Amino acid sequence: MNQIISRRDFFDGIAVSALGSPVARVAHGAPGQAETPQNAAYGPRGFTVRGDTSEALSVPHALRDGRFWAHADPPEATGERYDLVVAGGGRSGMSAAAEWLRRDPGAAVLVLDNHDEAAGQARRDALRRRIRQERPDGVMCDAETFGADTLVRLASPGWADEVPIAERARRDLRMLHEDPPDWFPRLSAEEKQERLAALTYSEFLLQVCGVHPDVERFCRTMPCREWAYDTRAFGAIDAWGAGYPGFGGLVLDRDKPSRLNSPSVRQEWQAGAGEDHVATPPSDGRARLRLSSPVVFARDGAGAATVGYFDGHQVMTVEAGSVILACWSAVVPYLVPELPEDQRRALRSAIRVPLLHATVRVRDARAWRRLGVLRVRWTGAYWCFCELESPATVHLLAAPCRSELGPGAGAAAGRRELVRTPYGRLEHTIRDQLARLLGPAGFDPAADIEAITVDRWGHANTPEYCRPWHPYYPDGPFPADVARRKFGRIAIAGSDSAPVGRGDAAVSAALRAVGELAR
Ligand SMILES: Cc1cc2nc3c(=O)[nH]c(=O)nc-3n(C[C@H](O)[C@H](O)[C@H](O)COP(=O)(O)OP(=O)(O)OC[C@H]3O[C@@H](n4cnc5c(N)ncnc54)[C@H](O)[C@@H]3O)c2cc1C
User: Fold this and answer.
1) 352-378 residue pLDDT tens
2) In 417-442, which positions are buried (b, 16+ CB within 10 angstroms) versus exposed (e)?
3) What are the structural domains, with CATH classification, of the chain?
């Protein structure tokens, strides 16, 4: 056998099909949890997968499934000692390192991340900013939902007539947009908001507005590009806050948010929200960044903490005066098993929502121009949104969350499906959907697609407290209050600890964690 199989592959079970040995079978872990084996070999020219790849996730998943320590050699000390070691090189971890050095310029800081590039989710902030500002100008009523593909151009005044649904459903759609009644005429404004907070947007459409089911199917993917789940999980109160159709007759004050809106919807009302003081540590050697180095434990000790990370071959350890865990909260219980049970439970409850972002380099934008739309939402196909960025880049987003289960359970189920989805399917669906959308305008995927990069984020959007899923919101007490408790020399940062899916929350969490350790 000439195939080189790294130790990292072993942890993810990728080696199973190659080896078939009893050891490899043990490494495979729970059925259905491990990465699909074909992905290790999948790599046609011009197709790249980045982000939460099988390589980046192999060690965290092996830790989760209890396979890691059965196969790892005993840790080896590097002999290094740092004032601060940070797990997670996203916006929060980098901000923590920068803030530590601002307070103590002579300090030595180490940042460890499991990916082979730094910056975590912040790498996609520019895309999100554009998505927030620009609404879709087309909806592809796709074959997956309506039996055949029909592109509806929203700029044309009679667009509702083009939607391939029954006439009664079209009437309902027009009513939602143009003249919705007051659905709760006898309730005060506050009571109306309470009613909305108890419903998802799908429930609002079907149960309160009583619209034809095709209308709900037409609207379903509206929140996906921002929230990574659909209207079956998206709250009606946040749909109102985001200006979705159907609420005009309620005559609620649109000058200010409801206290029941989730944190990032509330922040949309504040001028300048979205920009934050991004801090990066100086590049003069005082802060070291070690990539492809997942942290596997952090242990508090009498004179110092010890942090272990996997360097691709074995576990290396460093000593740390202080530790900040700015990785995903759900990972922390595996890194610090000594944490109290209530804190471990609270940390595990922060389930990030998966999201895929594909960047496709195309030969030119002529087909888009002929088509007359730039940003298209799909109603049920794998990729729920695609847009042209001039001059010749196409972005696509996919939201594998199983929204019918709610944001938490749906995210976990969607992620399980995502790790089993062959990379070949990701590539095929991109080519297929671009051909279906742009083919009538002369686009030929075989000739016109030059390169595809998929950022696969199994752990993407920070889970926020939102109605109707978290009845304790906004009054508390919140699981995050327990989850972010300091443990000896170990503090917990990251946007999950807020929990708010915004860059400014990630930075604030970092400043809080540094402040806790400095006390
Ligand atoms: C598509 C998208 C676009 C966005 N756009 C905006 C925007 O325009 N404006 C805005 O304010 N916010 C935006 N956000 C939100 C913002 O980017 C995130 O909330 C923020 O970047 C999260 O930072 P973080 O450091 O908490 O988490 P992350 O960026 O996820 O960083 C955590 C890091 O920890 C690493 N890690 C996990 N486990 C381990 C381990 N065991 N060892 C070592 N490292 C580990 C992860 O790989 C990751 O790199 C966007 C989010 C998304 C999903």
Assistant:
1) 999 999 999 999 999 999 999 999 999
2) ebbebebeebbebbebbbbbbbeeee
3) 74-118+280-350+475-518 (3.50.50.60), 121-164+351-461 (3.90.660)
